[in-house]
Amino acid sequence: MKIDKAKKLVRDTGIRLLKAGLIARSWGNISQRIDEDHFVITPTGRTYEDLKPDEIVQVNRHDLTHTGRIKPSYEKGLHAAAYKLRSDIGAVIHTHQLQASVVAAAHREIPVLDNEMKKVIGGPIYCTSYSLPGTKKLIRMAIEALDRSGSKAVLLANHGTLCIGQDMEDAFNVALVLERICKTFIEREFLKVSGKRNASRESIRDWYVQNFGVEVKA
């Protein structure tokens, strides 16, 4: 893919993720493979609303060096490792999306729950153990989890998610389906623990007040 097209695609995907409620401010990072040896990735510390295509940074997949004066995301090593894992991976999205982050904070894994999950994500969603963001340990655990599951998503404990795809549209859809699946998983777990018949906001709030004595606003 031509670099200018890849940069615009990354920037446009950031706006789509914002509108979908899957990222906020400068959180998370997005990358697009441009050839066998390089990818482009969002820079560090730039908000998606103000990000311009020419601020997207080209990175060498092998040694993580970058082109230009703008620094790439410090998660560039995680993206590089994902591209190394599978030659058919064309895009990588790392988010801190709400429902998935809740499951990641609980260190839970999610089996295949429905046909859409199987079709889009490809398998179960594993969760790594905790390690600091950007570290070699976290990268290793995330890639091992993707490799073992054969799926396109992994939960990073107490951190967020990593979604991969054959192209950017595929990776975006993985993030969308992942959020829905995590919400479904949370609701099912609530029903098991609470004995309630439904997982409405009112039901969850009432159960919380009953067990913890502190009312939360809906």
Automatic annotation (TrEMBL):
It holds the Pfam family Aldolase_II. One of its GO terms (molecular function) is aldehyde-lyase activity. Keywords: Lyase, Metal-binding. It comes from Leptospira fainei serovar Hurstbridge str. BUT 6. The lineage of its organism: Bacteria, Pseudomonadati, Spirochaetota, Spirochaetia, Leptospirales. One of its GO terms (biological process) is pentose catabolic process. Gene3D superfamilies: Class II aldolase/adducin N-terminal domain. One of its GO terms (cellular component) is cytosol. The keyword Lyase applies. This is L-ribulose-5-phosphate 4-epimerase. InterPro entries: Aldolase_class_II_sugar_metab, Aldolase_II/adducin_N, Aldolase_II/adducin_N_sf. Residues 8-186 form the Class II aldolase/adducin N-terminal domain.
